[in-house]
Design a protein that fits this description.
single chain, 66 residues, mainly alpha, two-stranded antiparallel ribbon
Length: 66
């Protein structure tokens, strides 16, 4: 699944660690999501969207929709 996480994070001036702290996950989890190696659970996807004040669809794009 593709995602806009790196660009959203940079727009806020947040480090990967800052985002991890906001979400209650490890920095490695953020790195894995950003690189597309790990798809977040639905609850985590909602937390990510809320952290950026946007919808899940604005953050994540399924592989078949890109």
């Amino acid at each position: 699944m593709e995602n806009a996480l790196p660009s959203l994070r940079r727009e806020r001036g947040w480090s990967q660690q800052r985002l991890a702290d906001e979400l209650g996950v490890s920095r490695q989890t953020v790195i894995s999501i950003e690189r597309g190696r790990f798809d977040p659970s639905l609850p985590l996807a909602f937390r990510i969207a809320r952290a950026f004040g946007t919808s899940i669809e604005a953050v994540f794009v399924p592989d078949d929709a890109s």
